[in-house]
């Protein structure tokens, strides 16, 4: 039986005028978008990202 997948996560503030560029950059790093929610101040959204954890 194989070990369960381990993940690493990142929270990324999004700028409305550059959302696609920001998400594409993180996607190039191997991250997958999980969800986007409003930021703590209620204005700029925050993206929650994940990618498989690299085994050392």
From TrEMBL:
Record protein name field: DUF4177 domain-containing protein
Organism domain of life: Bacteria
């Amino acid at each position: 039986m194989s070990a369960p997948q381990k993940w690493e996560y990142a929270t990324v503030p999004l700028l409305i005028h550059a959302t696609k560029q920001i998400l594409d950059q993180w996607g190039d790093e191997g991250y997958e978008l999980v969800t986007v929610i409003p930021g703590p101040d209620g204005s700029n959204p925050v993206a929650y990202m994940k990618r498989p954890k690299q085994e050392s």
